[in-house]
Amino acid sequence: MQATLAATTDGCVANYSANGELHLPCVNVPGAFGKIDTYEVWLQQQSGSFTFDLDLIRIQLK
User: Fold this and answer.
1) How far is Cα 20 from Cα 22, in angstroms, rounded to an integer?
2) Strands (E), the chain
3) What is the Rg, in whole angstroms, of the alpha carbon atoms belonging to the chain?
4) Which pTM was predicted?
5) How would you label 27-42 residue by residue, b for 16+ Cβ within 10 Å and e otherwise?
6) Which residues contact 23 (CB under 8 A, 6 or more apart)?
7) pLDDT classification of 9: cutoffs 50, 70, 90
8) In 3D, which of 7, 49, 47 has the Cα closest to residue 26?
9) Above 60 in pLDDT, residue 7?
10) 55: left (phi > 0), else alpha (psi -120 to 50), else beta?
11) At 24, is the secondary structure helix, strand, or coil?
């Protein structure tokens, strides 16, 4: 999976914290019939690497 971060003007900005958590408040996912769903997700960095795990418990549909 490859992610692209882009600057926005709507205040939807990803944030990385010192504990290795990456918060992505707006992830647009194309769905059926051209509908776009927007999710809020959190990723946790694996120790000693630049690899992240998706926190499946905190995914929220916006």
Assistant:
1) 7
2) 15-16, 21-30, 36-45, 52-54, 60-61
3) 13
4) 0.74
5) eeeeeeeeeeeeeebb
6) 14, 15, 16, 17, 40, 41, 42, 43
7) low
8) 7
9) no
10) beta
11) strand
